[in-house]
Write a structure and sequence with these properties.
Layout lengths: L1 H7 L19 E7 L3 H7 L4 E4 L12 E7 L1
Antiparallel strand pairs: 1-3, 2-3
């Protein structure tokens, strides 16, 4: 997560807040991660929004998979 944020942050463009809507959230990093993320998130210095994919898909494969969104 730390490397992804360091590499991606310079590439994320800021947008005009007047054109942002609920359907188009602020620019940021979106990634798919798995496993225990607590240490990785702490070391990255980010505060991502975390969504468990198991809340969307019931298959066992998605049990420990997450979507992380870090706004710029």
């Amino acid at each position: 997560m730390q490397d992804l944020w360091r590499w991606g942050k310079p590439l994320i463009q800021k947008t005009n807040d007047r054109i942002r809507t609920a359907e188009a959230p602020a620019p940021g990093l979106i990634c798919l991660k798995g496993g225990d993320l607590a240490k990785e998130i702490q070391e990255s210095g980010t505060r991502p929004h975390v969504t468990a994919i198991k809340d969307i898909f019931e298959e066992p494969f998605f049990e420990e998979k997450y979507i992380l969104y870090v706004p710029k």
